[in-house]
Design brief:
The structure is a homodimer. Chain A is of the alpha+beta class. Helices cover 28% and strands 31% of the residues of chain A. In chain A, the strands form three sheets. A six-stranded antiparallel β-sheet of chain A has the order 4-5-6-9-8-7. A two-stranded antiparallel ribbon of chain A has the order 1-2. Chain A has a two-stranded parallel ribbon with strand order 3-10. In chain A, a hairpin with a 2-residue loop joins strand 5 and strand 6. The radius of gyration of chain A is 24 Å and the shape is elongated. Chain A starts with 14 loop residues before the first helix and ends with a strand. Strand 10 of chain A pairs antiparallel with strand 7 of chain B, so a sheet runs across the interface. Chain B binds a DNA duplex through helix 3.
Chain lengths: 259, 259
Amino acid sequence: MGGPTRDGQAHATPPSRRIAGELRRAILDGELVPGQRLPSERELASKHGTARNTARQAIAILQAEGLVDAQHGRGVFVRQPRMFLRVAHDRYARHHRDAGRPPFRTEAEAQGLVPRVEVRAIQQVPAPDWVAGQLTLGAGELVLRRRNRYLADEEPVELADTYVPLMIADGTSLMHEVPAVGGIYAALEQLGHRLARIDEQVTARMPLAEETEALALMAGVPVLELRHTSYDERGIAFEVTHSILPADRNALTFQLPVD
Amino acid sequence: MGGPTRDGQAHATPPSRRIAGELRRAILDGELVPGQRLPSERELASKHGTARNTARQAIAILQAEGLVDAQHGRGVFVRQPRMFLRVAHDRYARHHRDAGRPPFRTEAEAQGLVPRVEVRAIQQVPAPDWVAGQLTLGAGELVLRRRNRYLADEEPVELADTYVPLMIADGTSLMHEVPAVGGIYAALEQLGHRLARIDEQVTARMPLAEETEALALMAGVPVLELRHTSYDERGIAFEVTHSILPADRNALTFQLPVD
DNA sequence: AAGTGGTCTAGACCACTGC
DNA sequence: CAGTGGTCTAGACCACTTA
């Protein structure tokens, strides 16, 4: 039994939210510090005179807010601030490419992290709508898709699907696992597609189950969704990349001149 | 009773996740279209031969993923794609400012939306660490803080705290509610701070309870956190803004020359 | 009034962790 | 083995929406 009005208080805050509120305040005020264990579900329940499920619901609220992290068999912990990989505004600068450093490697090494790239798949697929639009292809036309996963110090920090029109990629090193020293941008440049301008669009959402697994995401962590288009000197798009980045491990920086 | 191994299948997917998986597939495959109602919790439970709480847990998973939206007394619905306000790369261009159009108004009107700005507070506060760092002030030095809420067609789309050093703002129109035609950037320019370069950093996280309310956020919607710094022609920072944007209503676009 | 989601209870078994 | 979180059951009352 026991809705919020059983004691005559209409619209009173339900116990689960009250417990979550108390814990949230303790975390934000620093009474509970990052890494510290919360009382167990059973302790919280008996302390507040509720069923265990009610205390559990309170924990679920905090988990959805990204404030705590439940570990099976160990306990519930205040979340630790995580390492931040800042994707700098100049990651596509030619001087890095000329030095044989692909964008991701540039970023990771600048922060003292060990980069690793996993090639998950290299396929020919029908172009998704957004890709076809950016590359001015017919809807459903075949494109090369390279699916990569990027890790810094063996922690996954990005999933990236890169699309290149077959007219450009067919028969080139792009179809193979390791396209060239310097990454695919160096390879594309050798093919005559000199990067002159990029266009990036950023939003965020909660991860799908598949992304949660591939990025080892904890509950309550959203992902950044980055859509990137590369243009050559004639203003023609020759490559697009769709990236998914854990929001707790990534911030994107941009520096723009005005006027 | 009833763990996943009761039937001898060790590590089998628990019923709640199985049900969530089926519904997720139906949504992503388009069998359930945006706006459509899902079966009720009681229907799902009886159809799958589980308790109602188990079906309810499946719904909670989809809600945390931002795929569905539960409405008390009505049902659970596949979430509608929301209107997207793209914050264009040229929102700070001088020609808008010269025409008396502040950045937000420029954006909204370009998309046929009616912009409205609520000034929530104009105060002098100690500079937060990040603000002090960007403006090269002493930690805790007083700065002007203007707290705004932005609405498009009466839907909240941004919370923004703008900080200006008191040395610049004191005694000027910036201390008043409506600083000048063209917004605070026009006012700053009249004070001799000509915008030459901006620096923006983007990340995302789940909203705090206060932000959920101020932005009328639904469950499972993260916020974009945008940190913006304005530099004049001498490379001196004269203004920073900390924005919180609902991720389901905002995408940020950037266009950058390379090299 | 009927149907829906929101919350709670009291109890159970499971899987995982760590002493 | 004890303690923790993960999941489930079967039932209940509440608040909200719709007809």
